[in-house]
Amino acid sequence: MKFRILGPLELYQDGAEDTPLTPGAAKLRVVLGTLLARVNEVVSADRLIHELWGEVPPRTAATTLQVYVSHVRKFLDAADPGYGRRALLTRAPGYLMRLDPDQLDLTVFERLHHTGRAALAAEDYLQASELLHGALTLWRGELLAGTPLGPMLERIANRLGEQRTTALEQRFRADLQLGRHAELIPELQGAAAEHPLREELHGHLMTALYRAGRQGDALRAFTEVRRTLVRELAVEPGVPLRRLQSRILAADPELLLPEGVGPGAPAPVLRLPRQVVEALPPADPAFAGRAVELARLAELLAEARDHTGVLLTGACGVGKTALALAAAHAAAELFPDGRAYLDLHPGHPLSAEEALVRVLRLGGVPDPLPADQGALRALVAQLLRGRKLLLVLDHVAGAEQVQPLLDAGAIALVVARRAPAGLRGLAPLALGVVTGPDARELLQLPSGAPDATAIAEHCDHLPLALRAAGAALVARPHWTAGTLAERLRGERTRLATLRIGDPGLTDRLLTQYQEVGKELRSAFRTLGLLPAQPFELWAAAAALDLAPEEAELVLEALVHAHLLRPAGAGAGGHHDRYRLPALLRPLAVELLGAQQGQQAEPGGECSVLHRVCLAYAERAAEADELITPGRRSRPAAVTGLVGGRPLDWFARERRALTEVLRAAHAAGLWAVTEELAESLTGYLETCAAWEDWEKVQRLALDAAGHLADERGRAGALRSLADLAWQQGHLESAADLYQQARQAAARSGDQRQLGRILVGLGDVQLSLGEFGEAGELLDLALAVATEHEDTRGRYDALRALALLARSPGGGGPAEAERRLTECVELAHRLRDRRLDAYARRILRELRTEDAGPGLEVRPGVWRLAAGATG
User: Any idea where the OmpR/PhoB-type domain is (predicted)?
Assistant: First the structure.
């Protein structure tokens, strides 16, 4: 049986702490609580009566007390048969509760407090902290909470409350010695608020705040306790607290370190070596360039004072370690007491204690060394006091590794991939990639080498990759720089080519990927399916299958991890475009392929690609509708996805769109291939991008064949025929138009048929077959009119206006009538390009200002040998 009185009164059997028992009657709780508070002591009946009824007990008090004691015994027996008479004994002049020390939380608390206090006096701070923490966790509230307290219990409660607060102060003292100031602050603030007049608690709070870099808050804490003391007691704070305030005002560096037990006690002084420390590895012989960064680093190191230094950050492979070592070797005069290099990730991240020990070892401090962080930090502070010694701390993963060293007075050049959260006291220097002469120097190519720029771009200007590229040229002496540039141009061969010069390059690049969590690794691989060009948030959201705001959080996390780069800034400081670095994109593709190969059902990649294609297709359709309204077989909704400058959007996304279309075709996404091709055609035709135009429509034609889609086949054939006509390949154009006409007839697509007839009419006009052209164009106009195809009517009237200007045609008046109707139709379509074309031709007619060339379609010219004015 065990009992608890440091809080509500409870008893429980071993192993049944979750189901405690408590006497229901308050008087029974008073009797049992009093006997437990004086455990293993005889409590007289008179004291118990006084505790129960105070100064005016009833006449039957003695008899009633005996009844209460009997009920308490029965209560104990109910919990454990026979236990009541074994534990609650009648002993003149009263009663005694006999328990083993471990049966009562009060006696356990007193034992732990006593041994913890002794450990603190012996400067065994870790043991003291653990014992005192264990003692304090026994308290669940006030003594016998919920039980009426008589005079004796009140005195015991006051004594134990004071003992509890003293134990808390002692535990804070031990934890401060262990360097736990940052984590203590919230608890100290609560304790100081609960005990506003206890100066030692406020002193601990001030010390913790100061050591956490919050000097202003520490001084504010002093002001608050002084105000309270003056207001409540009309006294000033005591000497120790005032001395502590003075040290904080003076920014005393000694105060940053754990001191002896008790506020203001001096730290122990040991005789430590004063040798010059020279523990730098040799400078990297391949280090080149970086003159600007070296100069800036030298300035920052020259400005360093105690507790300061430089934080050098940058992506993997950017050359942080090489630059740091070069700067350290060049800084001998600044640091006459030495320079030392410490790798904080030699296979595993070093703890703060391990880092402190290694610095002491570098300084020649002999064994034995203490185990706890506070004592180690005090030794490092003593070692560094009054010395100018530079520590190069490489591969830093977190502030907790190095902050104790900085707090101990180290001047450090901290090298990390990213700025560790919470790291204080360092001047930041972010290291980027190299450009121009520095890149050529790393490649070991002469100034002005024609392929150096291309090689640097394919290496993403990353020093790690540039050195690998230079080494590959050495390893393949029969290669020229042009050969290397060509091999690096292709994503599939880029990494393999660089591995010739540096077999470990991929492993180095993988470290950034391996450091992030599972979700970010998956996102990085998935983004490898996006086009190689910079992409916008909507494209990433489609690939990741996330809402835009969720996708942005993922992208920014990848940027922070150096796995993604911003490629443009939008409104409000947000990035509006991103790109995978040139070396990481093929790595993402490799990783994605390996991941897909390990899955039982490799369908994920296709679903991602399908979402991406649909997102591009939706926006391309809207942009196409804005550029060439009425051209599409099914008009697209205009919802503002591409903004108000669709031509700019197409120009920006053209390469991405063609890449997505090729990927859709390769994946057998036939319907999406058709949709993308249709949306691209208007822009490619407008820009006369003949090569891309043909490639896109050939893929669309193949997709239509797989789908047995005669409508799609007709559209692709007509577009290819339009291209052939523009290029002047009239025979090929006529053949393609005829194939398109047959496909349109089979599909029943009359609108498409009307436009094909216009194309055939244009071919006949170009061949001088004006009669046949007229028949085709009249039929095209009739079809377009019948099926309410506004753009088809415009095209037919445009061609009929050309026919009117040909020999034997209707003449200028007929042409003007046709073109005037074209202007009206262009207004209806809201197509400024078609409107401008019709007005230009009308102006030529009215001014008889036609030149040797004739604009037969918007932007398409032919010699006007047979045309009339």
Answer: 1-99
Number of helices and strands in the chain (H, E): 37, 16
CATH superfamily label, 180-266: Tetratricopeptide repeat domain (1.25.40.10)
| pLDDT attached to residue 598 | 53
Contact 413, 324 (CB under 8 A): yes
Residue 262: pLDDT band (50, 70, 90) is very low
Q: What is the 3-state secondary structure (H, E, C) of 679-698?
A: HHHHHHHHCCCHHHHHHHHH
Report in angstroms the alpha-carbon separations of 120 from 110, 201, 240, 550, 721. 15, 17, 19, 51, 93
Q: What is the pLDDT of residue 858?
A: 87
* Residue 429, beta-bridge partner list: 312
Distance CA(294)–CA(288), nearest Å, equals 11
Does residue 667 surpass a pLDDT of 70? yes
- List the CATH code of the domain at 2-100: 1.10.10.10
Residue type (1 letter), 511: T
146: left (phi over 0), alpha (psi -120 to 50) or beta: left
Residues contacting 319, CB < 8 A, separation 6+:
287, 290, 431, 434, 463, 464
- The yes-or-no verdict on residue 260 having pLDDT over 70 is no
Cα pseudo-dihedral 509, 512, 515, 518, rounded to 10: -90
Give the strand pairing for 277-279 and 94-97.
Answer: unpaired
What does CATH list as the number for 517-599? 1.10.10.10
Residue 752 and residue 714: Cα distance in Å, rounded? 7
The helix (H) or strand (E) run that includes residue 131 is: helix 125-136
Tokens of 69: 């004691």
Q: Euclidean distance between the first and final Cα of the chain, in Å?
A: 118
> What pLDDT, in 10s, does the model give residues 315-325?
999 999 999 99
Q: What angle do CA 722, 727, 730 make, to 5 degrees?
A: 70
pLDDT in tens, 392-432: 999 999 999 999 898 888 899 999 999 998 888 899 999 99
According to the model, what pLDDT value does residue 1 have? 87
Reported as a pLDDT band with limits 50, 70 and 90, residue 124 is: confident
Peptide bond into 368 cis (omega under 30): yes
Pairwise CA distance, residues 529 & 30, whole Å:
75
The arithmetic mean of pLDDT across residues 586-606, rounded, is: 69
Domain ranges across the chain? 2-100, 180-266, 278-430, 436-503, 517-599, 603-681, 709-869
Q: Give residue-wise pLDDT tens across range 126-146.
A: 889 889 999 999 999 999 999
Helix (H, G, I), strand (E, B) or coil at 339: strand
Answer for the pair 217, 178: CB distance below 8 angstroms, yes or no.
no
Which pair of structure tokens corresponds to residue 430?
């972010």
| Segment 380-394, tens digit of pLDDT | 888 888 788 999 999
Residue for token pair 């997709």:
703
DSSP 180-225: -HHHHHHHHHHHHHHSTT-HHHHHHHHHHHHHTT-HHHHHHHHHHH
Asked if 660 and 611 touch (Cβ cutoff 8 Å), the reply is no
pLDDT average, residue stretch 522-529: 93
| 338 sits in which H/E element | strand 338-343
CATH code of 709-869, in short, is 1.25.40.10
Contacts of 21-29 spanning 24+ positions with Cβ under 8 A = 21/75, 21/79, 23/71, 23/72, 23/75, 25/71, 26/147, 26/148, 27/52, 27/68, 28/68, 28/71, 28/72, 28/75, 29/144, 29/146, 29/147
Within 13 A of 627's CA, how many CA atoms are on the CB side? 24
Do domains 278-430 and 709-869 share one topology? The answer is: no
Using DSSP's 3-state secondary structure scheme, residue 163 falls into: helix
Scan for tokens 């009164």, then name that residue.
Answer: 9
